Amino acid sequence: MHRILSREALAPDVVRFWVDAPPIARKRRPGQFVIVRLGEGGERIPLTIADADPKRGAIALVVQGVGKTTRDLNAMEPGDAIQDVAGPLGLPTKIEPGQRVCCVGGGIGTAVVLPIARAVREAGGHVVSILGARTRDLIILEDDVRAVSHTCVVTTDDGSYGQKGLVTDALREAIAKAPEPFHEVVAIGPLPMMRAVCELTRPLGLRTIVSLNPVMVDGTGMCGGCRVTVGGEQKFVCVDGPEFDGHQVDFGELMARLTAYKEQEAVACARHPVAGPFTPAW
Amino acid sequence: MRSASGGGAVHARVVRSMAKKITQKTKTPMPCVDPAVRSRAFVEVASGYTEEMAVAEANRCILCKNRPCIAGCPVEIDIPKFIQKVAEGDFEGAFQTLTEKNVLPAICGRVCPQEDQCEKLCTLGVKFEPVAIGRLERFVADRAAAFGSQSDSGTSPQPTGHKVAVVGSGPAGLTVAADLAKMGHSVTIFEALHEAGGVLMYGIPEFRLPKEIVQREIHGLERIGVELKVNHVIGRTFTVDDLFEELGYEAVFIGTGAGLPHFPKIPGVNLIGVYSANEYLTRSNLMKAYKFPETDTPIVHGRRVAVIGGGNTAMDAVRTALRLGAEHAYLVYRRTEHEMPARLEEIEHAKEEGVEISFLAAPVGILGDDRKRVCAMRCIRMELGEPDASGRRSPVPQPGSEFEIDVDVVVFAVGQGANPLIRSTTPDLHVNKWGNICADAATGATEKKGVFAGGDIVTGGATVISAMGAGRRAARAIDVYLRNPLPDGV
Asked: Which of A76, A265, B187, B379 is surrounded by the most beta carbons within 10 Å?
């Protein structure tokens, strides 16, 4: 059992938890995730580790309530316990010293980008961050990202905060304005956003890393449910990823695969005590 | 493969002498739930012998001198002794005999391929059907559980003070853990999933091996002092080196089992509704997707499901499809029934339940609709050609023989590669070209000091009992190692 140590709402339906998990906190590196199961009869879902405090033996999870399990989780309080947390899973982000990196976070993807941006900075790199969301309320962790970035730009689709427009607009400007070219872009957010970023950087030959979040069961390579096509080859996100060269990823296939259980998810949500319609994140 | 080694003459004499007293030439039939009922429910197919049936079947054993059955058992159970006790009505004594050698009798009685092991060598089987050793084993284990019996072996061993880590709680890991605990060593099992049991929990379906029975046998291990840590992914949460250096274990046994499932390189394998057998069975067995939405894990319920493969995993998957409500459950296998690796009993059960088998066919592509969901599968007919490396005649595609079947779920049960989590984080562990760990067949010892391995991670996909046999041999070698560690290597 893993006790929830603290709970903090970051945006509507988005919560940051600190959860007791000492061995995972010690081992975890940026880019890795855990598999969580709330209790008996629960499903196993992957959640990226947003931060870790090895001294306290705790990991941070940032959760957006989109399906039954994530909504159940977001309704939990400090003192409650999550039955199963396994990890850290997946390969850590490859961080090279002294790199110029543009970190792009869309919506909840910012929670995944933040530890990577921090690691790039700690490795002596130069960090330009771009955070985007539909509207002001959905921008999360801005102060944390600013603290580790040399430059930070915020965009909203509706112009309610920061620049009006998409992260790709800000990225295009950042690339044009950069005194020296970026070594790479790290883009993490909804699949359409990651695909749009890749379409922008592909003609420039600018390496772009994305982090994928497909449906998983075991998370250890056994089931193959998280398979994606990267550069024409089959990869398992849980053991080969979750980060890949975005220019090689078949986003169309992954988007389709994410709809596999849409109907069942709607059934599960309809039975949910804190109901509300199922709002897919893709 | 040996037969009764005493030679033909002795053998024939034994058979003749017993022929007179044999009144029952065939095995006492196993009572089974009606196929029409069971094919739509997860209830266990075989309901088990009654006491009368068990005694009658045990009395078929002729107590031959050679006792060839024991040599056919990977864990060397004293089969004639336990059967004799059943014949005498001493079911408790039979249980104690069984559990001297086998820690998981209720499981082995259900899933061992006895027809290729103990029963294959049974003297009675030379002329008649062999004694139903597996069914008797199951009866003894189930009866003991119903009466709350506990195994005497391994109670209060003298603690040795040695600590062993076992990675994986499948059949290999459970056996090695039980044996070492009985020798007095302190054993911890690390399991990556949220429940212990490995393939016994996620792979083999409820209707063939009730999960309650698996948990019962695992609790038996906890009673003799084995510590279980679930949600611990070795290679991630701790590396093998951490187990030694940080956690102070003196030896490590790796029994991580199944690896990454194979998918053929044909179009359409990533459509919605295409599964590996591992995923399909894990969703249904471990995650109980058949109870959705009472449980949270969904599964695509196909109306027409095709399972590709010819092994026991394929049989489990295709029979699961029926129970999930499929109107048609097809098994597509590229060779003939003769070459199928699945157990005969499983094939018979599947046919009784209405599985439609298409032999000499293989998929060449899967077709999807506009929502990227499976709607059909294109197959090609095969003919058998020359024997391949495995000795089986290899299938040869027949040009121009393509055909399509309408399906909405496709499940591949065509084998798996090795899991990379341990090898990629344990640089001094030797693996072969397929990524399986190189280990001595007799001892399970690897090239890395204090590290032993066994089961599917060493051999590639095999059976529960062969993994248990590897666990048994490794336990002996680990015991020797712990008592006399060598300075370099084992």
From this structure: B187
